[in-house]
Amino acid sequence: MMVNCNAPNDGTQQTLPCVGGLTNVLDLTISYGQNDILITLLDPMTLLPLPGFPMFFPAMPPGTMQNIQLFFNGPPTGNVIVQITSPSGPFPFPDMFIVNYAAISTQTTVPTQVCWDEDYRFGFNGMEKDNEAKGQGNSYDFGARIYDSRLGRWLSLDEKAKEFPYLSPFNSMSNNPLNIIDPDGRSGVAVMDPVTKTITITSKLIFYGTEAKTEVSHAVATEIAEQYNNAGAKVMVAGVEYTVKFRVKYETVTESEAIAKAATNTDPTVNFIRVEKNNTAMNRSFYQVGGNSGFLNTDDDLGSSTTAPHEVGHGFGLGHSAGDQRGMGTPDVMAARGTLVDAAYQWDPTAIAGAPGGTINPSTREVNQQNVTDILSGVTFDSSGKATIGTTTNQIYNKDGTKKP
Questions:
Q1: Which tens digits make up the pLDDT trace of 22-66?
Q2: Which end of the chain is more exposed for a tag (fewer CB within 10 A), N or C?
Q3: Please, how many CA atoms are within 13 Å of residue 106, restricted to the half-sphere of its CB?
Q4: Which is nearest to 2 in space by CA: 27, 32, 34?
Q5: How many angstroms separate the Cα of 317 from the Cα of each of 170, 295, 313?
């Protein structure tokens, strides 16, 4: 069955016939303007979105024609409500219109008991269904753990629960399945959320070394998360403003464990950080610019001096900011030690600028809007809303700060 009709261009809802209990295809041809598009299919009985909706389509060059096919299970009523809006602003848009759409049944017979394809093995999060255990669609095998979709919980403890002390070890997707996906039941991957208009940047810090103790790891990770989130930064993507959030996970391991992890790591969000009292190679904390490896000295007052947020900023690809920030107020987090600043931000507010005590006190630095803008500058998000920041070098350091072969 195919039903063609003119689509609304004012964002209102329109009801289309479909085949209840079977897989249907919504076939749309759209002409883009300069706005993102949000397509929602609703059940006429409950007025709730169908599973998998709304779906987000980022803006494309004006005049671009694209055919989109959206698969959905037809509601029992034999109708589906189609709503086309935009997170970029209200309709109507003079530069964007829907040419046509149609609801097409992919089958010709209607079952009386079930509305799923018993031969299709996969479901929520793209994981394999374990129907033999608890019935259709009630249990999913993520590889590391079994997920009960009725409870929204795992049936066993998270093997990495110590990284997330603020969450139940039985939680799934950080209790946020709309914004977080879970590739194997072990951890979450953040994605751009066009509905809440947030971008979450996730980093995992793996600490090793003589001074890599749990309390140090916690203090460093907490300071990094607080500094970057306190900026309250926003960026524009395809004409839409997004709030940027930072999610920092951490793990404390032995040197041999860090070496083993680095040998097989392909994820640039995983960072390897050696922690020692000091090092003779650089005599200071350091980090690879745009890389995922660094060295932190506890002599640098980790957890309170902004040293860790500064060094991780290098990992995000940031260089040092201006060496003279007098008249600019609070110095940004990428200001290097020795930077000239207003007197209130010096080691000694009474000292002459540049004289002993007359340079920046690192603890006064703060992550600001420009720092976050620079992190995301030039970053390209793929069609699923994901982007990579930095590269994998997986460098492990010796205790003295020299590179381990």
A1: 877 776 666 555 566 777 888 888 888 888 788 776 766 665 656
A2: C
A3: 15
A4: 27
A5: 35, 16, 7
Residues 156 and 281 reside in one and the same domain: no
Angle at 317 between CA 315 and CA 318, to 5 degrees: 105
What's the domain count of the chain?
3
Rounded Cα–Cα distance for residues 130 and 148 (Å): 10
What letter would DSSP give residue 244? E
Question: Do residues 19 and 147 both lie within one domain?
Answer: no
Which residues are CB-contacts of 138 (< 8 A; sequence separation ≥ 6)? 131, 148, 149, 150
29 and 81 fall within a common domain: yes
| Eight-class DSSP state of 346 | B
Paired tokens of 164 = 């997330």
Give every CB contact of residue 275 below 8 A, 6+ residues apart in sequence. Answer: 207, 208, 209, 210, 211, 212, 216, 217, 220, 295, 296, 297, 298, 302
User: Domain check: are 171 and 195 in the same one?
Assistant: no
Neighbours of 79 (CB within 10 A): 17
Are 149 and 242 in the same domain?
no
Distances (CA, A) of 162 to 168, 187, 249: 10, 12, 10
Q: Among candidates 217, 213, 216, 291, which has minimal Cα distance to 249? A: 217
One domain, residues 275 and 164: no
Question: Whole-prediction pTM value?
Answer: 0.56
161 and 200 belong to one structural domain: no
Look up the domain containing 290 and give its range.
191-376
Provide DSSP, 16-66. EE--TTSEEEEEEEEE--SS-EEEEEE-TTT-PBPTT-SEEE----TT-EE
Report d(CA 249, CA 337) in Å as an integer: 27
For the record, the structure tokens of 223 come out as 């300071």
Mean pLDDT throughout 104-108? 44
